[in-house]
TrEMBL record:
Database matches in InterPro entries: Mut7-C_RNAse_dom (IPR002782), Ub_Mut7C (IPR027798)
Domain of life, source organism: Bacteria
Transmembrane residue ranges: none
Domain spans labelled Ubiquitin Mut7-C: 3-75
Name this protein carries in UniProt: Twitching motility protein PilT
Pfam families attached to this UniProt entry: Mut7-C (PF01927), Ub-Mut7C (PF14451)
Annotated Mut7-C RNAse domain residues: 97-238
Residues of the signal peptide: none
Length: 248
């Protein structure tokens, strides 16, 4: 039996350049599920929105039988594909909530700045990340594609760019986050919510020039870090507005 697999759209990102845009013929030596088949070729199941087997809708549990002489064509589409009718991906959590791997610390800070609930530590293990994603309905963002092979992960995305600024744009586009941005309500350091406080209550923690020029202050309810709209505020606000105006 000949088996061919064709990945459409941005799923090509996971393939060697020479294998993009054309069917791949994997060595199918045993009975296998479509999930195991596509992941053996380097494409995580969390990146795939639809599968067909000989042009019939299929699921990740659909089996490919190695016996017999029939030709088998498997096609896979990403969530962005306009032709996807029977999506394998359930609706994402709303509002969006995230857990990020250890390599995405700056992205975590940027997403928190935009108001999103983001779990990140520099010592997360793979099993802990997968469990948090599954048990807390969080979208797992990672630069490790093999982490996304774990079966319990329903919502996950392999971040392509290695530039934190581009990563934010990428994630906002992938999940259509532009309407959910509510900037400056979370602590970029720890993810806690910010609350407005009286100037007098934090005066002892601030420099004299800060007290002279600023009157509005906010404190993280979790780590107690103090924020105010300093000289960087206009630049960050302009960046936030640019993100919100982008078409998802």
């Amino acid at each position: 039996m000949g088996v061919q697999v064709l990945f459409h759209g941005c799923l090509d990102d996971f393939l060697p350049p020479a294998g993009r845009g054309q069917p791949i013929m994997p060595p199918t030596l045993r009975r296998t599920s479509l999930k195991d088949l596509v992941e053996s070729l380097g494409v995580p199941h969390t990146e795939i929105a639809a599968l067909t087997l000989n042009d019939c809708p299929a699921t990740f549990e659909t089996l490919v039988e190695p016996l017999g002489g029939d030709h088998v064509m498997v096609r896979a589409w990403p969530p962005s594909a306009q032709s996807v009718e029977h999506t394998l991906q359930p609706p994402r959590p709303r509002p969006a909530r995230f857990v990020l791997d250890v390599h995405l610390g700056r992205l975590a800070r940027y997403l928190r700045l935009l108001g999103f609930d983001v779990c990140w530590r520099n010592d997360f293990g793979d099993a802990e990340l997968a469990d948090m994603s599954a048990l807390q309905s969080r979208i797992l963002l990672t630069r490790d594609r093999r982490l996304l092979y774990r079966r319990q992960i329903v919502h996950g995305y392999f971040v392509r760019s290695d530039d934190p600024g581009r990563q934010v744009e990428e994630v906002c586009h992938r999940y259509g986050l532009h309407d959910e941005i509510a900037a400056f309500k979370r602590c970029a350091r720890c993810n806690g919510l910010l609350v407005k406080v009286d100037k007098a209550s934090v005066a002892g923690r601030l420099e004299a020039r800060t007290l002279l020029y600023y009157n509005d202050f906010y404190k993280c309810a979790r780590c107690r870090h103090v924020y105010w709209q300093g000289s960087h505020f206009a630049r960050i606000s302009a960046w936030v507005e640019t993100l919100k105006q982008q078409v998802a």
